[in-house]
Amino acid sequence: MGTDREFDIVLYGATGFVGKLTAAYLARSGADARIALAGRSEDRVLAVREWLGEAAQSWPIITADASDPSSLDAMAAQTRVVVTTVGPYAKYGLPLVAACAAAGTDYADLTGEPTFVRESIDLYHKQAVDTGARVVHSCGFDSVPSDLTVFALYRRVEQDGVGLLTDTNFVVRRMAGGLSGGTAASFVELMDAASDDPEVRRLINDPYSLTPDHAAEPQLGAQPDMRWRRGREIAPELDGYWVAPFAMAPVNTRIVRRSNALLGYAYGRRLEYGEQLSMGSSVVAPVVSALFAAGNRATMELGSRYFNRLPRTLVDRVLPKPGSGPSDRTRERGHYTVETYTTTTTGARYRATMSQKGDPGYKATSVLLGESALALAFDRDRLSDLRGVLTPAAAMGDALLARFPAAEVLLETTRLA
After folding, report:
1. Cβ(54)–Cβ(152) under 8 Å?
2. Averaged pLDDT for residues 334-348
3. Cα-flanking dihedrals φ and ψ of residue 287, to 5°?
4. Average pLDDT for residues 240-248, to the nearest whole number?
5. Helical (H) or strand (E) element with 403
6. 15 pLDDT exceeds 90?
7. Nearest to residue 254, comparing CAs of 308, 296, 203?
């Protein structure tokens, strides 16, 4: 990709809730970056720029709309990196992926939609490889903590020379925050598509649905997403705890497995990866864990078959609206801490711990997306040599690990007894 572009970063979707938060983060952390704001309505984007204050007043405004591919082509041709918060991505995202793949422009988004990622791979991976574009999906809370904790473990195990990763489990230990309107909209789009198409249901249930080469994947069984079990089955450090399925496991696990494949199975061909949510250690924890697992399983199995039979007005009334979000106080009080445990082929055990302050789906996500944009634009010596439709770890794992401390994203690895 050429370096003679007018802008370093264009933020598309700047008027949405997470878009505004990402713009604010870039205004604080972007230093001398050449940044432009983009959206459908020039007046609304101008209002966002005014809201951002002095740091952003020189940022140009670009009018672009997913329904007008020529406007996306023009936008992609002007910048090194396009960052987009415009979802649901299955509905609005592919024209922008097409524009970036054609222009050789790097791209980052917040999608949690595996069907969108699969379609992006099938349609534009080869073209992006040819033009030198990095199309990086899932650069927010979905799926950076999952992808980067496993990548950090891989780097630590590689450094210590103790084999390759095998049984690896991500556990959400603590989390406070609200459901993102964009995440809710993505879930609705996914369930609608699955209700109409058995192939989408097959894709959702396939642990290697995002792999570059399905036939090359190891045969490790079903690796189900909806398990509940004792914490000690994962690691002795979790003895006394119970865990239930993490709601975003069907997305995050596929991203991690794709990272491993894109990196030439650097993590190991015996990597088994799952995600769980800690339900605590109280006397009711096993019951709560079982009920939570059953509810998640029913939501996925029944929703993927019958969701389109629900009255849309009822669904819209219950779920938060895209572009909506919690109050400043709620965002500031949010937080998360995740732990990823692994055992290597030589029996060594490790834990990666990652945490951030701020609502995971909003404030924390805006930091992760902003840092992804800055890494793609400025840390080119730390990026991988890969091109095409990538994952955060495969595209910029080392760059993000280096950036996290200054962004107050805490990630450390520990060798366990």
Report:
1. no
2. 97
3. -70, -45
4. 93
5. helix 392-403
6. yes
7. 203
Q: Integer distance in angstroms from the first to the last C-alpha of the chain? A: 46
- Mean pLDDT, residues 289-304: 80
Q: List phi, psi (to 5°) of 153.
A: -65, -45
Burial of 169 (C-beta count, 10 Å sphere; 0-12/13-18/19+): buried
* Residue 265, pLDDT score: 97
Q: What residue spans of 240-391 are helical by DSSP H? A: 249-262, 285-306, 312-318, 328-333, 365-378
74's tokens: 């023009």
- Angle at CA of residue 151, ends 82 and 361, nearest 5°: 50
Write the burial class of residue 318 (CB in 10 Å: 0-12 exposed, 13-18 middle, 19+ buried): exposed
Binned at pLDDT 50, 70 and 90, residue 285 comes out as: very high
Class of domain 7-141+362-407 as given by CATH: alpha beta
Q: If you search the block for the tokens 């415009």, which residue do you land on?
A: 86
Q: What share of the chain is helix, strand, coil (3-state, %, to 5)?
A: 50, 20, 30
Are 114 and 251 in contact, with CB atoms under 8 Å apart? yes
Average pLDDT over residues 361-370: 96
Provide the whole-model pTM. 0.94
**Alpha-carbon 248 to chain mean position:** 10
Domain ranges in the chain? Answer: 7-141+362-407, 144-358
